[in-house]
Backbone:
C-alpha cells in the first residue's frame, strides 16, 4: 500500500490529477487512502477553480483593453492635430502638446 501511495503521489505531482488510491477495508491504511483521495480531489478542484479564474481574468483584461482603445483612438487623432499645430502655440502650450503625445504613446504601449 505504501509503494502504491508513493506511485500515485508521484503521478499526481506530474500533473495526472485524476489519480486516486484504491481503498479497501476500514483500517488505518484505508483511512489514509481516503484522506489521500480527498486531498487529491480538493487539489484538482482548486486547480480547476484557478484555471477558470485565470480565464476570466484574461477575458476581463482583453475586454478592458478593447474598451479603452476605442476612445483612445479619438484622443490620439485630436492630439496629433494639436501636435502638428504646436509651432503656432506659445511655448507652454506647445510643450503641453508634446507631453500629451508622449503620454498617449505610453498609454498605448500599456494597452498593447
Residues:
Amino acid at each position: 500500500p505504501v509503494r502504491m501511495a508513493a506511485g500515485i503521489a508521484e503521478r499526481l505531482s506530474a500533473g495526472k490529477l485524476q489519480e486516486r488510491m484504491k481503498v479497501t477495508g476500514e483500517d488505518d491504511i484505508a483511512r489514509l487512502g481516503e484522506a489521500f483521495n480527498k486531498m487529491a480531489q480538493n487539489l484538482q478542484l482548486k486547480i480547476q477553480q484557478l484555471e477558470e479564474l485565470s480565464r476570466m481574468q484574461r477575458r476581463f483584461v482583453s475586454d478592458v483593453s478593447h474598451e479603452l482603445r476605442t476612445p483612445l483612438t479619438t484622443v490620439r487623432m485630436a492630439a496629433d492635430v494639436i501636435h502638428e499645430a504646436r509651432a503656432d502655440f506659445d511655448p507652454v502650450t506647445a510643450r503641453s502638446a508634446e507631453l500629451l503625445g508622449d503620454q498617449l504613446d505610453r498609454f498605448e504601449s500599456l494597452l498593447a
Residues 2-111 form one domain. The chain has three helices and no strands. The mean pLDDT is 93. The chain has one domain: 2-111.
